[in-house]
Amino acid sequence: MNEVRSLLERYGHIVQEIDGGNDHGEDLHVTFVQEGQRTADSLAVQVKGGVSWRTRRGHRVPVGDHGDNWRDGSPPVLCMVHDPDRGGLFWANATRQLRRARALRKAMKSVIVGRESLLDDSTADAFVQTMRTYLVWEREGVGRWADMADVEFAPHDIVKPFENDCGEPMVFWQKRGEPFAVLLHHDFDWDPVRIQEGMLRLDLVPSIGPLILDTAEAHWLMGCFKSTEWWRRPVDQSAVR
Q1: What would the pLDDT profile of 100-133 be if each residue is shown by its tens digit?
Q2: 4: pLDDT confidence band, cut at 50, 70 and 90?
């Protein structure tokens, strides 16, 4: 915990130890700071140390009985492992991995911490930016669906969630300049599906591609396409520069 605290506090972020963290699966509470000002971006961290967590490709942190809290609780939870013989601190987003496992209907016993996910002075800025972007989408209420689909929304993407009368969620996702949108849908195990307005059928049995829709879903998708047409126009690279 001291290594995590030392690194993050060196860049001005707020790190607080959670009383009884080892009993509840969370050791530290981190709030990111920008230009000396506290932000709304916070997360929890479970910290492990020593060689007992090693695997050939990295490290594993047992989920134990923390799975529900790490997946569905607030704030999101990261797992960090301190292994100085392998380079220092390594991290993984436990919340994201557990949500993806649920989407795939798999039981996950351990959070996988890859050797490529090194956290040190050279990667600290990128780590903070990654997590702050993640937390923005979490506050928007669509972070869960990105995790379940194993995709990452960029800051300027248009993301529109919808839930039908059976409580089944779906997400319309439009990147700037792309001629297609992406549909994330529980019936497809959240695998991303490229869609275009011309694929949408408002017939007796509405559909888009291979997916059968109900009337509300079809009209919602039509509204999504119409309201994001401007964002699908080709990007003028000279204007961007």
Answers
A1: 999 999 999 999 999 999 999 999 999 999 999 9
A2: very high
3-state secondary structure 220-234: HHHHHHHHCHHHHCC
Q: What percent of the chain has pLDDT over 70?
A: 96
| pLDDT tens profile 40-95 | 999 999 999 988 898 988 999 999 999 999 999 989 999 999 999 888 999 999 99
Query: 217 and 117 in one domain?
Result: no
pLDDT at residue 238 tops 60: no
Any domain includes 24: yes
Q: How far is CA 203 from the centre of its chain?
A: 35
When divided into structural domains, the chain yields a total of 2
Contact status, residue 171 vs residue 183, Cβ threshold 8 Å: yes
Query: What's the pTM?
Result: 0.89
Instruction: Tell me how far apart the alpha carbons of residues 94 and 61 are, in angstroms, rounded to a whole number.
Output: 9
In a domain, 226, yes or no: yes
Calpha distance 109→98 (Å, rounded): 9
Residues 36 and 106 in one domain: yes
Residues near 207 by beta carbon (within 8 Å), at least 6 away in sequence:
200, 201, 213, 218
